[in-house]
């Protein structure tokens, strides 16, 4: 019986820590570890640190030069209107053509619903909406 409770508690700490680390204003492994430690003790710190590192790495804001490039670049000829709301952390549909940022190929951009968005090319996740 004790093993079942321990496993359930660890799973709960992982899910809560990952969700909280991703939505917190504290980013990365340090924030995730701190959140995990609060929610699940030492085991939660390890799990939260890993989850925070992934979330912090994937959604880190792009460098200012990338934002400036996307803001000032001519609009691609393929602008798209989609029904879904464009949101940071959500992938763009495959129908949206993304254009690589020449100076930094870790980033790409698109114009969707009259908004310029910076995306991570391989996952197509929106990193930032450029105003």
UniProtKB/TrEMBL annotation:
Keyword Signal: yes
Residues of the signal peptide: 1-21
InterPro entries in the cross-refs: DUF1236
Alphabetic keyword roster: Plasmid, Signal
Name assigned to this protein: DUF1236 domain-containing protein
Naturally occurring in which organism (per UniProt): Rhizobium sullae
Lineage, broadest ranks: Bacteria, Pseudomonadati, Pseudomonadota, Alphaproteobacteria, Hyphomicrobiales
């Amino acid at each position: 019986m004790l093993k079942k409770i321990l496993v359930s508690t660890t799973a709960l700490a992982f899910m809560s820590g990952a969700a909280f680390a991703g939505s917190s204003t504290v980013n990365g492994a340090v924030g995730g570890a701190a959140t995990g430690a609060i929610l699940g003790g030492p085991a939660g710190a390890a799990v939260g640190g890993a989850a925070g590192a992934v979330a912090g790495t994937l959604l880190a804001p792009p460098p200012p030069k990338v934002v400036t490039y996307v803001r000032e670049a001519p609009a691609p000829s393929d602008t798209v209107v989609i029904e879904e709301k464009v949101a940071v952390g959500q992938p763009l549909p495959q129908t949206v053509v993304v254009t690589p940022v020449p100076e930094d190929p870790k980033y790409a951009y698109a114009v969707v619903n009259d908004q310029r968005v910076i995306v991570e090319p391989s996952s197509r996740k929106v990193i930032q909406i450029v105003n």
